[in-house]
Design a protein that fits this description.
This protein has nine helices and nine strands. The protein is α+β, with helices and mostly antiparallel strands and about 270 residues long.
Length: about 270
């Protein structure tokens, strides 16, 4: 989770006895990481880098990464083009689900955030199923601040491509959104900065790669819009990704450094919706 330390992934080996030095070292490391997580709640814009020995890097608050200077990625100061199907007062919110749903689930994400990827791969199907059933509609609020902390432009470029998908349709956006998380690179690898890679991934969404979509991704048509979306995230007051709110109430979708299982996510929703 952005601004929380990454818990070491299970190795698949049998558990070690409690007295094993390796386990004691891992426990000490996890305790230190939890302490860092508590400190990070008081610091704006922190993110995770590294693998099993994750290090926390503080990011400057309120500064969006500017895309520009290279062909095929667009320029932050280019003309603002808002994709069709964008919502909210300034076209920075992406809504999926039935418009008359009685509840609203807000999801704050960064395409480069590993914890966002974990949430989506663990609970994404359940999140969508509940929306499709009319329990709530989903409002996506996307950010690009990881580019600033980690270097590169993958968050911004992926968001601009997602804008091109949104222009093709909300369902196309949702499918492309899911494909991006299913193929998310390590956060240190700026893989989403490559528009050709994004276009290859778009090929997994039936009917998405229209001529208009391909041109918009290659030209960075929606890069300025991606900047506007990130600014809206900055103004939201949300300090970490992923953050999930149901009718304004934050859901604790992570426990012990891992996304809660689908049945627990459903239970959290029922606690709010009744």
């Amino acid at each position: 989770m952005t601004k929380q330390p990454r818990t070491p992934r299970p190795s698949g080996n049998a558990p070690r006895p409690s007295g094993d030095p390796g386990r004691r070292a891992a426990t000490a490391q996890m305790r230190a990481e939890r302490e860092r997580a508590e400190r990070s709640a008081r610091i704006r814009r922190r993110t995770v880098i590294g693998g099993a020995t994750a290090a926390v890097l503080a990011l400057a608050a309120g500064v969006a990464f500017a895309v520009g200077g290279s062909s095929g990625h667009g320029a932050a100061d280019g003309p603002l083009v808002v994709p069709a199907n964008a919502g909210g007062a300034d076209g920075t919110v992406i809504t999926y689900g039935k418009a008359d749903a009685p509840h609203t689930l807000e999801i704050y994400e960064d395409f480069r955030c590993p914890y966002c990827g974990q949430l989506e791969t663990t609970d994404g199907k359940t999140i969508q199923q509940l929306a499709d059933a009319g329990t709530y509609k989903i409002e996506y609020h996307l950010a690009t601040f990881l580019d600033q902390g980690l270097g590169g432009k993958g968050s911004r470029t992926a968001l601009a491509a997602a804008g091109a998908a949104l222009n093709e349709g909300v369902d196309k956006f949702k499918q492309f959104h899911d494909v991006l998380y299913a193929n998310q690179p390590d956060e240190r690898n700026d893989g989403f900065a490559d528009v050709n890679h994004l276009l290859d991934l778009a090929g997994q969404v039936p009917g998405l790669k229209t001529d208009a979509f391909v041109k918009a991704v290659q030209d960075g048509t929606y890069a300025p819009w991606a900047g506007q979306v990130d600014k809206a995230f900055e103004k939201s007051g949300v300090t970490g990704t992923p953050t999930v709110k149901l009718d304004g109430q934050k859901l604790e979708v992570f426990a012990d450094g891992a996304a809660v299982p689908p049945e627990q996510f459903t239970a959290l929703v029922k606690q709010v919706t009744g």
